[in-house]
Amino acid sequence: MSKRLYIETLGCAMNVRDSEHIIAELNQKEPYELTSKIGDADLIIINTCSVREKPVSKLFSEIGIFRKYKKDGAKIGVTGCTASHLGEEIIKKAPIVDFVLGARNVSKLSKVIDKRHAVEVDLNYDDSSYSFGEYRTNPYKAMVNISVGCDKSCTYCIVPATRGDEVSIPSNIIVQEIKRAVANGAKEVILLGQNVNNYGKHFSSSGERLNFTGLLRKISLIDGLERIRFTSPHPLHMDNKFLEEFASNPKICKQIHIPLQSGSTKILREMKRGYSKEWFLNRCAKVKELSPDASISTDIIVGFPNESEDDFADTLDVLEQVRFDQLFSFKYSPRPHTKASTYPNQVPNEIASKRLTILQNRHKEILDEIMSSQMGRVHSVYFDELKSGGKISGRSDDGRLFFVDGSEELLGKIRDVKVTKTSRGALEGEVIS
Ligand code: SAH
Ligand code: SF4
Ligand code: F3S
Fold it and tell me: Are residues 363 and 384 located together in one domain of the fold?
């Protein structure tokens, strides 16, 4: 009988892809079957996130649960961003953990798997040309890394300290990986990186020097690939050329994440984001001018040190002007290795909570209006997941989640769907052609 793996993934899409790489690397050594029961697993992995304090405390409570329910002899591995920045401390605090493998060190999995208390967390480790084994949770849409690390130093963010400097993956490796995914049934690719539109600034090997716009053009030549998405682009690097390519290339889905963080130019400066409120609004206006049907999502932090009521009003003003289709919003969380954690004037928790509620409530009202206006519209939907109750789900070109009545024969197909019911989180519809 093959061994069983229980793997829990916290954090962002890059971590989700890292978990797929972990599974692929394990399977190259010996086959593992995935299990959702801790007690059945021979290997338990928690792929961690460090971006806010909450997911870090979750790590240690989860280790307690693993200790309680794991079977004798089962190993526990901690991977991901918290592994990177806490390293050995994790084993000191929780000696039951067998190995610690940092983000950006996934290709070293075979070095740690059989070595008790092994720790591999080299932030400078360069696996940008490493060819990972093939494993995908969903064969219809393929996540593909285009860069590792981050070359920015936003003052609130721990990511540069967990994923290291930015290195772009050579375009021929990216194209090969996408071609393999397409051959295995993927019509859609999601390009991943902390700053995807900074692609091409730093390579560690020789080869073709493309920027992000060039990479998008090259990828869109791949036969059989019909949809390209990417996350996250940085507002600072959204030049007109890139937005023109976004608008005019029919394979690029008209969905874009433009992380705002704050609407106040003063706070953006203190965050070291490199753009102003006006620049952000100007870029969103450009997206809407060039692609009127594009949907825009964003990330916002409230309660950054020194954020006044006026600063928060600027954030609300951007929300009103852009009317985001999706909002990921967070209370500022002071993180180790970051400048902002040492800033004076930290905002009291009650004020930050109040602002978060105001922001989220206003966004919900806007979203209700946006979603109701979808009634009767026709979208081209790519079906990628079977659901219970005779339903199948998929995404429209502009990234909206759809549910329709249907079965296997729609999986992996793109169809025109007319919206028959709307809600805040998803649309229902019927296939019309
Ligand atoms: N590279 C991406 C973001 C990666 S982190 C970008 O630049 O947009 C994902 C999101 O977590 C960020 O956009 C930010 O909104 C949030 N985040 C990062 N650090 C945080 C902190 N210290 N407190 C609260 N939210 C944070
Ligand atoms: Fe963090 Fe800023 Fe890099 Fe995004 S761009 S990962 S927020 S440092
Ligand atoms: Fe992602 Fe969390 Fe790391 S958001 S980059 S897994 S800190």
Answer: no
CA angle, 329 then 169 then 272, to 5°: 40
Specify the pLDDT at position 54.
Answer: 85
* Bridge partners for 416 per DSSP: 380
Whole-structure pTM over 0.90, yes or no? yes
The CB density around residue 342, as the number of other CB atoms within 10 Å, is 10
83, 45 Cβ separation under 8 angstroms: no
| Spatial separation of the C-alpha atoms in residues 218 and 156, rounded to whole Å | 35
Residues 342 and 401 placed together within one structural domain of the fold: no
Q: How many domains does the chain have?
A: 3
- Residues 362, 388, single domain; the answer is no
pLDDT, tens digit, for every residue of 339-362? 999 999 999 999 999 999 999 999
Cβ–ligand 1 contact at 232 (below 6 Å) = yes
- Containing structural domain, residue 361: 141-372
Q: Calculate Rg over the CA atoms of the chain.
A: 22
Q: Does 405 lie in the same domain as 368?
A: no
Of 351, 372, 393, the one marking the end of a domain is 372
Query: What ligand 1 atom has the least distance to the C-alpha of 156?
Result: 22
51 in ligand 1 pocket by Cβ < 6 Å?
yes
Ligand 2 site, CB within 6 A: 150, 152, 154, 157, 159-160, 194-195, 234
Query: Mind listing the pLDDT tens digit for each residue in 140-158?
Result: 999 999 999 999 999 999 9
pLDDT over 80 at 55, yes or no:
no
Q: Are 74 and 41 in contact (CB under 8 A)?
A: yes
Cis peptide before 131 (omega within 30 of 0): no
Same domain for 395 and 367: no
**Residue 157 in contact with ligand 1 by CB distance below 6 A:** yes
Do residues 265 and 408 both lie within one domain? no
CATH at 69: 3.40.50.12160
| Residue 136 within a domain | no
